[in-house]
UniProtKB/TrEMBL annotation:
Top-level taxonomy: Eukaryota, Fungi, Dikarya, Basidiomycota, Agaricomycotina
UniProt domain Major facilitator superfamily (MFS) profile: residue ranges: 63-471
Entry protein name: Phthalate transporter
Source organism of this protein record: Coprinellus micaceus
Pfam families xref list: MFS_1
GO molecular function: transmembrane transporter activity
Keywords: Membrane, Transmembrane, Transmembrane helix, Transport
């Protein structure tokens, strides 16, 4: 583990002390605050805010493009099975009946159960070592999938792909929470997650191009899809060892003053809650019923997300388009989803609200699935597919920002995020078995409609519950005169601390 440099921590503490002293001096009953004093304080606060925004932009440029490429490769590798299917894999390997559905589903079992241990490992080891290592592991699995020549071989490969890829998404989500305040995470997660929508769009284009390599080296076109995308992951993972930064306290692209500013922001945001590893915080997260509410919301979203990634090529193909055109026509749904993902992520942070934006996205997706169920024409159904993807994708990063911001303390947050992502990904098993009867897929669309309605109901309950807890905490603080000066008393309580405030 990387230790925090003392000088940086001292600078962060000095900034905190200076702010407290200035506030105490300004409001002490023996000191009269003049208009000039207020203007000076206001100017100082404005200058501090300008510095903070500058540092945030600098972190964005050094962190977000990098982690977005990591996730693009991850999502591309897990979802390319859908492109490979219509590129000839189903025919060449005789994947009749439910065989393709089983191949799609087995990925999610090890993927779900390995996520909590992986996030614990990320905290115990350096992110710049753990994340590239698991990338190389799944890149090797992905590359070797090109040698699979049977249903059983694909099953084994997908199991190992799920196991090795499990740590990336929860790991990066947790990693970003170690760099950014809770109020700043939604738009960063939206930028990060938009890589998934780009992967969906790019995957269709890439598959269309790679299909033309049919017969080269004695491999089918779908085998080249696995081979080339796996090699790309391995190459980028090797580079990641040298360019990935661990924590703000040790980031070489920040100078000493900038590191102190970041430490100060994070210290304020944590309300003095613990940052070290302890199994106590793991158990706190496991026993927190509010985490399971977020699991329910996330599962309801992941079922349509994975259905879209696994079956959009098939759905478009069944609308009457050729396989080659179907690959290309998968691009617009994901591209539209990317745009709205970024827009809602930014708005969610500006308003510091999560639930209403998740409900808004789910409502758009519901409209899309209603169109898919009720319309017979290919054009109208294609519009429905675009609406379905456009609405549901933005909900995912906002939900993760919501789950992360409502878990107090680094370790508790890491475990809570891994639980939400891990259990939610079990929804991928459901996604794999609901699209069975083409061309209208009534069962699949109907199940997803039910999931999205459930998401809206759970969001309404979560907003009410979090607001209730905030009111109770505020009342307790007022009754017992609890303020920030007593943070050490509640350091180990996580979001059970009376000083903690839930994001609605």
């Amino acid at each position: 583990m990387t230790s925090t440099p003392i000088s940086i921590m001292e600078k962060g503490q000095d900034i905190q002390k200076d702010k407290k002293l200035s506030l105490e001096g300004a409001y002490h009953h023996d000191v009269s605050v003049t208009h000039q004093d207020e203007e000076a304080m206001s100017a100082s606060q404005r200058a501090l805010e300008i510095d903070r925004k500058r540092v945030l932009r600098k972190m964005d440029w050094h962190i977000l493009p990098f982690v977005s490429i990591l996730y693009l490769l991850s999502f591309l590798d897990r979802a390319n099975i859908g492109n490979a299917k219509i590129a000839g894999m189903a025919h060449d390997l005789h994947l009749d009946g439910l065989k393709y559905n089983i191949i799609a589903a087995v990925f999610f079992i090890p993927y779900a159960f390995a996520e909590v241990p992986s996030n614990i490992c990320l905290k115990l080891f350096r992110p710049s070592r753990w994340i590239p290592s698991i990338m190389i592991a799944w890149g090797l699995v992905m590359t070797l999938m090109c040698l699979c020549k049977s249903f059983e071989g694909l099953i084994a490969a997908r199991v190992f792909l799920g196991l090795t890829e499990a740590g990336l998404f929860p790991g990066i989500t947790f990693y970003l929470s170690l760099w950014y305040r809770r109020r700043d995470t939604a738009q960063r997660l939206a930028i990060f997650f938009s890589a998934a929508t780009i992967a969906g769009a790019f995957g269709g284009l890439l598959a269309w191009g790679i299909e033309h390599m049919e017969g080269i080296g004695g491999l089918y076109g779908w085998q080249w899809i696995f081979c080339l995308e796996g090699i790309a992951t391995i190459i980028f993972a090797a580079v990641s060892y040298f360019f990935m930064h661990d924590y703000p306290e040790t980031a070489t692209f920040l100078n000493e003053k900038e590191r102190a500013i970041v430490v100060d922001m994070l210290t304020e945001d944590r309300h003095g809650l613990a940052t070290e590893f302890s199994m106590t915080y793991v158990w706190q997260a496991l026993k927190d019923r509010k985490v399971y509410i977020m699991v329910g919301i996330y599962t309801g979203l992941l079922i349509p997300v994975y259905a879209i990634s696994l079956f959009t090529p098939t759905i478009v193909n069944e609308l009457g388009f050729s396989a080659a055109n179907a690959q290309l026509l998968t691009v617009p749904p994901f591209a539209c989803g990317c745009v709205l993902t970024l827009a809602l992520g930014i708005l969610s942070d500006r308003k510091n609200l999560r639930g209403p934006f998740v409900m808004f996205g789910a409502a758009i997706s519901i409209i899309g699935y209603i169109v898919l169920i009720t319309q017979k024409s290919a054009g109208a159904s294609y519009v429905g597919a675009i609406l379905a993807a456009t609405g549901v994708y933005p909900c995912v990063p906002v939900t993760l920002a919501w789950a992360g911001s409502n878990a107090g303390g680094d370790m508790r947050r890491g475990v809570a995020l891994a639980m939400v992502i891990g259990m939610g990904n079990l929804g991928g098993i459901c996604s794999s078995f609901i699209y069975l009867k083409p061309p209208r897929f009534f069962l699949g669309h109907g199940v997803i409609l039910g999931c999205l309605v459930g998401v809206i109901v759970l969001c309404m309950f979560a907003m009410w519950d979090f607001n209730r807890h905030n009111k109770l905490n505020i009342a307790r603080c007022e009754a017992e005169k609890i303020d920030e000066s007593r943070t050490d008393e509640f350091k180990k309580l996580g979001n059970d601390s009376p000083l903690f405030r839930y994001t609605i």
